[in-house]
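INFO  loader      accepted 1 record
INFO  loader      residues=152
INFO  predictor   begin
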Amino acid sequence: MVNNDLSIYGELDDLDLEILRLLQINARLSYRKIAERLGVSPATILVRLRRLKKKGIVKGFTVEIDPFKLGYQSLAYMLLRVDPRKLRRVITRLMKEPYIVEIYEITGDYHLLIKLWARDPGDLANVIDRIRLVDGVNDTNTLYVLKINKES
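INFO  predictor   done
INFO  writer      dumping tokens
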């Protein structure tokens, strides 16, 4: 995710990029550990991270949850073709669906791409049926994930 082309990031230097790289690998690293690995003081890391947060480059630190360990065994992506006049209402309705974890507006033949997890194929079928019934959803295309080879 971290690109070494500094022109993209403006004022970021190699130290900033290395801090970001380490945090992408493990967001729980302490300032002390990051400082040790990069050969600088913890205060330097603190100052750099405050600046990266202020610029909006670092949005926050999150916990990554394994859906499989919580009993969610079925992952799917859905492409939705939506009545453009009802797009905002459709998105608002989809945001209330607990199985949907991501919603993207996209270009092309479809308007939305959603990512959803369900407990099993039957549960997934029920969620898909609910989504198809949302007023303004005209067409869907569901892509069932057989195997995850890489996630970041």
